[in-house]
Amino acid sequence: MKSSSLLRVLVLTGCLAALVTGCSRDPNVRKQKYFESGQRYYEEGKYREAIIQFRNATQVDGRFTEAHYQLAQAYQKVQDWQHAYGELFRTLELDPENYKAHLDMANLLTANGQVKEAQEHVDWLMQKHPEEAASHLAAANVLGREQRFNDAIAEIRKAIALAPNNGEAYLNLALAQSAANLPDQAEPNYQKAIELKASGASPRLALASFYQLRGRYSDAEQQLQQVIAGDPKNPNPRIALGKLYIAQGKRDEAEQYMKQVKRELPDEPAIYVLVGDYYFLIGDYDRALAEYESLYNDHPKDLKVKKNYIQLLILKGRIEEANKLNEQILSPKTQDEDALVLRGQIQIEQGKFNEAAQTLQSVLSREPGMAVAHYRLGMAFSGSGDLEHAGTEWRQAVQLMPDMIDAHRALANLALVKNDFAGLEHSAAEIIRIQPLSADGYALRASSLMARRQFPPAEMDARKAIQLAPQAGVGYLQMARLTMLQGKFSDSEGWYKQALSHEPSSVDALSGLQQLYIVEKQVDKAVAAANAQIALSPNNSMLYDLLGGALMEKKDYQNAEPALKKAIELDKHNGNAYALLGKTQSAKGDDDAAIATLNEGIKENPSFAGLYILLGGAYEKKHDLEKAKSAYQSALQVRREDPVASNNLAYVLLETGGNADLALQLARTARRGLPELSNVADTLGWAFYQKGVYRSAIEMFQQAIKLSAKNKEPESAEYHYHLGLAYAKSEQPTLAKQHLERVLKIDPKYPEADDVRKQLAQLRS
Fold first, then answer.
1. pTM
2. Residue 448 and residue 425: Cα distance in Å, rounded?
3. DSSP secondary structure string, 409-467?
4. How far apart are CA 400 and CA 390, in angstroms?
């Protein structure tokens, strides 16, 4: 009996084992186990573990639609947008009618700035499920991205009508009303979202941000403290509170608070970077770098820490170290988009603008909604002199990320360069919107208003900059510029000196003060001002640069030369110092020394186009036109369509019998960029002359003579010579004789005087 029973047990056990083994090999069972495990991890907030299990499920069954969708959800939780997009795309391939996937795809694409693609999913949602509140919220997101805030608000109200207790809808409504500058309408909707518990703590954080932007700091702090009390381990409200202290100017309090939070939550990645991020935010890059170096040593596997550390190394000019660390992240199999953007930034710092552009364009081909890549690509284009494409990229960056202040600042600087003062005012207003307690937005707007001679509002903005940053020089500098424009030179001098008292190393303030003295024909004072600031900041290369410039102004080349050499000794990347030193040596008649200086400057500053242009001029002076041509061509490789290099190269080509068609193209480029310069008009006229287009040549030579008079330049024998030749070719002998005779009156020793006499003899015969 016992033996039989034992046998029966063994047989049953074997059957069970076979059954279990059989089950474990059933793919449907395996994929379901992985899926259920992933769901448990997801509900516990363990998203990376959930990703592994959901991915296992999809590997067992590639057509497991729900697993692909849940995998997309998990990827979104860890902000891996690229993989989230891929899984949503696969979900819709398998199930084209999946409402949730269409909804998530619409919102993901909108957040990524791909509005056109998002609109396709919104159209599907509105056609198939107009009765769903979420469909209208997705439509509102697209409208908001297009800054059509009134239309967005209308869609959100439709969502609320469909789902009156949807807290998300009220939060979206409040955010849209805030964006539309309707604060009185927005505030009660933030409160309603809180009441309906939309997204947990999110409505209170949004309301705190709303209060902070309006200077209601105590209300903002109250909201943040409530969130912290309810969820003490959540890093987001603690980070927001630290930023609130900074916004109020409570820097010491902010620093101590962040250090305290770091001690309380030492293992939370979003928290242990707080102190380093704080130092970065206030511009103390030395302490930020030290903090991140320590963090990198403590958390070597934290990629965010490593990338921020690399960014700080770049900012501090430690390019080789940054590059070495960044290349560790990248490999043929791991093309990390952030690291590629950092590679592009490093290439920009190295002056490799074309390589940087290629790197960043490769990122954008895969991630067109990556705002920081557009911003850096703009910087690469700017470095190569392609300002039009630079502006396009910066505008794309702020469209994708409206609060990217660096891109707004870049657009402001571009507007200054182009004398686009309406554009400057717009960019300044955006900077003020993003950082209402920062002085630079008001200072930039003051510049725009001054340029249009709107002096009272400009003064209000300049004084506002002083009020916001009384220890900085930027507001005083704007008051100095304003009073100088108004002809109040004594007041202007006082403001410049105040700016320098707050920022002794301010190049802009010293340069402005020197210009004031030069206008007043007090060049010695300009020299003395530079020496005074050098005494306070003896290691500032740019101050020696300005000293050298002032000494050149008074033609004191003997003393200018050592000052400029000192500027170069302090900073070999000060291309302007090399340029001024080359000019000084040329003015002294030492052309060989000038050429040697400019070549050395190019070696140290290969992306400084002005050095190539000056080198070309030095070679022209020595009548070595082939080397001059090569120098101008190099300038255009560095800075495409540079008008000075284009003009000079065009003229050299014409003088050496070069390609006349290319010369004409270059001369037209120069004329577009420098329409008020007489010699540029003359070059274009000479190109037309060489091409036999005499009517256009005459028009340009006439323009050159008019511009010369307008600019109060000495009368040019060459312009009259060229015009006389053109009149002769167009069979207008009387006018030809008039201008050729004028050549000999202006300069009897004109180099082409013999040809002038020959031409006159032919005309008289």
1. 0.68
2. 6
3. HHHHHHHHHTT-HHHHHHHHHHHHHH-TT-HHHHHHHHHHHHHTT-HHHHHHHHHHHHH
4. 16
